Amino acid sequence: MNPSEQRQSQQRDPLRGVVAGDPSHPPMSRGSILIQRLESLVTPPALDLEDSEDRGSSRLASYSMGFADLDIPKLVASLKQGFPDELFIAADIGGYRGTAALDLERVGCDRCFVIDPYDGRTGSSSQLPANRFILRGAENMEGIPEDCFQFIISFNALTYTKDLSRSLTEIFRVLRPGGAAVVDIEWWAKGKDLQTLTNLSLPENVTMHLLVRDREAEKITLAPLQKAIQIVTQEKDNQRLMLGMMLGTGFLIEKKATT
Predict the structure, then answer these.
(1) Does the residue 140 lie in any domain?
(2) Domain CATH code at residue 210
(3) pTM (two decimals)
């Protein structure tokens, strides 16, 4: 690639390749640039925040969410194979205190950021470094580059968003090709969330599976599930709750790697 082509490539994707600078220093990797950009979005913690109950993520083990086939450390290890010699960057959407984010770093993620509109950096239970917290809601992750995170988790946070469709669209945007996201949407089978999932349109490079509780290694793709929901819910509204109880609340989102 000649210098002109390299400049054009960097203009299209400023996270690609090297960064111009002092030639005596080694070039920065894509992951290092991403981490710098994400850390630039971090707001200094407010010292007068009152401590409150941890409404965010608990230990990483809780992310099994009752699904026999879901092993987060194993999933992280598998995903990392697709990004050899790269920094592996993850996010916990709605993580609040950063407990699960800290666990993700312990099981192999090089850096895990908490994305939450509420600042959880107060109290002794917050052990994640302060520069990991980005105060954003799932519906608007402004400033976070697309194709950013190789892995995303979100436990019972999207339940409280006003616009589930927009929140999922943002996850699709910031998830890097070749990466995956595990999200829990509690009580999705009630009300507007069910309608959102029934009508959700996925990008061509994104697949979404419903994780079935207490079943070994079984996933249901979203498209046939949408049709089944439409048929069942034509009869009685209370069957929406029944669906949620039967099918569970976990979703695995995968973004195909570019070739």
Answers:
(1) yes
(2) 3.40.50
(3) 0.76
8 A C-beta contact, residue 104 and residue 77: no
Residue 16 counted as domain residue: no
User: Which residue range is the domain that position 201 belongs to?
Assistant: 29-42+60-255
For residues 213 and 68, what is the distance between their CA atoms, to the nearest angstrom?
7
Domain tally, the chain? 1
Collapsing DSSP to helix, strand or coil, 257 comes out as coil
Is-contact 117 93, C-beta < 8 A?
A: no
Q: Is residue 94 part of a domain?
A: yes
Mean pLDDT per block of 10 residues along the chain (259 residues) reads 47 40 56 90 63 43 54 91 95 90 91 92 72 92 95 88 91 97 74 74 88 55 64 56 58 89
Helices (H), the chain: 3-12, 30-39, 72-80, 99-106, 164-174, 192-199, 222-232, 239-247
